[in-house]
Amino acid sequence: MPQTLAQKLVARAAGRAAVTPGEIVTCKVDLAMVHDSSGPRRLKPRLERLGAKVWDPSKVVVITDHYLPAYDDESRRIIQIARDWVKEAGVGAFYDAQGICHVVLPERGHLAPGMFAVGGDSHSPTGGAFAAYMFGVGATEMLGVMVTGEIWLKVPHTIAMDFDGRLGPGVSAKDIMLLLIGRFGMDGGGYQAVEYRGPAIRALSMQERMTLCNMTAELGGQTGLIASDSTTKEFLNRKIEMWDSDPDAPLLAHHKFDAGELAPQVAAPHSPANTRSVADFREKVDLAYIGACTGAKLEDLRMAASVLKGRKSKVKLLVAPASLRDQQAAKKEGTLGVLLDAGAELLASSCGMCAGYGENLLAEGTVAISTTARNFKGRMGSPSAQVYLASPYTVAASAVAGRIADPRELLA
Amino acid sequence: MKAWVFGDDIDTDVIVPGRYMKLGIEEIAKHCLESVLPHFAKEVRPGDAVIAGRNFGAGSSREQAPEALKHLGVSVLIAESFAGIFYRNAINLGLPAVACPQARRVRQDDDLEINLEDGKVHNRTTGETLDCEPIPEFLMTIIRDGGLLPHLEKKLAQAPSR
Fold this sequence. Notes:
The complex is a heterodimer of chains A (412) and B (162). Helix content of chain A is 32%, strand content 19%. Chain A contains 14 helices and 18 strands. Chain A has a five-stranded parallel β-sheet, with helices on both faces. Chain A has a five-stranded parallel β-sheet with strand order 16-15-14-17-18, with helices on one face. Chain B is α/β, with parallel strands linked by helices. In chain B, strand 2, helix 4 and strand 3 (76-79) form a beta-alpha-beta unit. At the A-B interface, helix 2, helix 3 and helix 5 of A face helix 5 and helix 7 of B.
């Protein structure tokens, strides 16, 4: 029986030759990632109550990214719990203030094709870009994983998103996701596996693929997956296994698109599904935000810089690189300089404003355009703030114009 | 039990906004659903039911979302559908989440009765009975134990060698 990539990954973790969509299986977890907000501060007291220890500290990665920079006693306390707990639990893989977990995890080589991983954060499907089955869970579910090393799963069906052709200039992975979320809704993924495939996907860099899989969360999939290939191997810079769907594996749905026809997309307040082409928007903006795991990786910063080069932002422009390593690379190659010359204010490499944590929150009535994943009411600050979501290209172009603008006009 | 009715795609930032996440559940719960129904947290009573449309609990994996509802005394969530992580979180906290294609038929303040074992919801206000999808038995075991933490506690006590 031919199997999808999702089925193969789940079957391996369940110790089975094959699995059928819909059946309940128990999977062994190869890696569990947590951050400061959902991780140690919630795990520690519960592990103590159970009198239990972490099943295998070598399979746990802890990354602080939410309450950084710590700005009051409570956030300092939460970060300190993480720092103390990794020592206590014997967790060696601890990345403190190095950037956002979904970007730091693969950057430091923790993911590889074939793995089965869970993350204590909803954007954990990002790991699927590496042909690893990765999904987000809450803190109590993570406690179960920490104690048993296992998790139950309903074997997902696979929805294939097949992109032929090539993305045009000024169009990116973020536009693909906004299109899909707009087309299929925030529950379009039905908590199944979403597999991105086709020549346009194969042509994407790993960080762009991460953006696709990351926002599978907003599409309502359990995980987003991309088969491994030479791009995966180059990024990881080591020998890897190749994992892909069998060509005739049954799909729940197979949606086909021509990537060349895709225009930049914008999601209006207050839902990522509230998406239309950029041409439909002319709203004035007060603030432009280039941040988050889905919108401020090195590739994202490059996109913004390609638009901002030699130009000035008309509005407040905030840039929070997704990881310290990406920030350093951007500095070295001149990308960061371009952003700063355009008037950008540099913020820390953490979740920050995207998650509504920290000191930089949107004031009442602010109209913002942002590279982040969610524009839910009140998420990034005041419930009266209006947040538009778009690609780094479009956010940069809008910063220059002071209103929502098509980046292709500036790139031409 | 009294029904509190909400719409589609009620996300976790609406249920419990991120800016309160550093606080304890007592404080977080005071802001539960405030941006769509400001008086909810004050007026909801122990035993009440939360009814919603599609994709209830979309967004973040923060389990303070179902935790706040449970803290306020909500006894059951009934929605046309739930976001996957939220559903698992609710069950893991011992809060029953019941998918019900006919959830939209319930009106604010209707008086409901639910049988979790067979998934039938009786609306005492209208007299009608709604067929919902019963929670699978292996998850009902977790709910009966009061959530995954007490469930694990029980299991570990039964197998002291672990």
